[in-house]
Amino acid sequence: QAVITMKSLCKFYEMGDQVVHALDSINLDFKLNDYAAIMGPSGSGKSTLMNIIGCLDTPTSGTYELNHQSVAEMDDDELARIRNREIGFVFQTFNLLPRLNCLRNVELPLIYAGVPPEERQERAREALIKVGLGDRITHKPAELSGGQIQRVAIARALINKPSIILADEPTGNLDTATSHDIMDIFGSLSEAGNTIILITHEEDIARYTRRVIRLRDGKIESDTRP
Ligand code: ADP
Ligand code: ADP
């Protein structure tokens, strides 16, 4: 069943008297367990598409349904609510707080959500165990390798039990072996029932996914399941 459905979705930007068609009539579905890479040259619309999928932005026209909720007409408060419930974000730069240990970094989203301390810590510990960091719970980011730091960031993205994980160049700052570990973690998360969508410009990284969507000039150039 589709968790994401986009129909005739457009995003236009007005630049003086010019209109940039960042996304031009996109029709796209994502299903539960999809593990997809979004590729394409610079300016092809990858970030715009991820921002819309992640409910950080809304389309100019067309429809976007996320778990059967119509997102296209939502206001900022509704977007924030659906984002917190449905989406986990992982970035190239890990965005961890350096003074906090792993457990504290991972539980941060739950503090904002008003979850009581014992439950927060239990859930943060579970998420860290899930990404193989059960023995690094009290370490601070500076005491971890790049790959371990990215795993903490993934654990934090998982903490609200989102259905969808969005990742923007999640292996961009990692060496090859570590990148492959991270891609394997995403692979097991997708098998466990998450929808994983990531932007990458590396064919070697895209190979780890089960679906490759290529954008060009705001349109889908190809959508393959190798
Ligand atoms: P990519 O992530 O593939 O590099 P983007 O989604 O960032 O592509 O951009 C797609 C197109 O939309 C580009 O032509 C870009 O210049 C334009 N664009 C993106 N964001 C804005 C914005 N906030 N204002 C104006 N134009 C934008
Ligand atoms: P690009 O992929 O074009 O280099 P970035 O990776 O800097 O762009 O960011 C992609 C988008 O994700 C941006 O439009 C930004 O609004 C959003 N973003 C970046 N960091 C965060 C964050 N920590 N929390 C929420 N949104 C973010």
Automatic annotation (TrEMBL):
GO MF annotation, one: transmembrane transporter activity
Species in which this protein is naturally found: Pelodictyon phaeoclathratiforme (strain DSM 5477 / BU-1)
Keyword Coiled coil: no
Gene3D superfamilies given in the database record: P-loop containing nucleotide triphosphate hydrolases
Name used for this protein in its record: ABC transporter related
SMART domains: AAA
Pfam families documented for this protein: ABC_tran
GO CC annotations on file: membrane protein complex
Alphabetically ordered keywords of this record: ATP-binding, Nucleotide-binding, Transport
Domain ABC transporter: 4-226
Family affiliation: Belongs to the ABC transporter superfamily. Macrolide exporter (TC 3.A.1.122) family.
Entries under InterPro entries matching the protein: AAA+_ATPase, ABC_transporter-like_ATP-bd, ABC_transporter-like_CS, MacB-like_ATP-bd, P-loop_NTPase
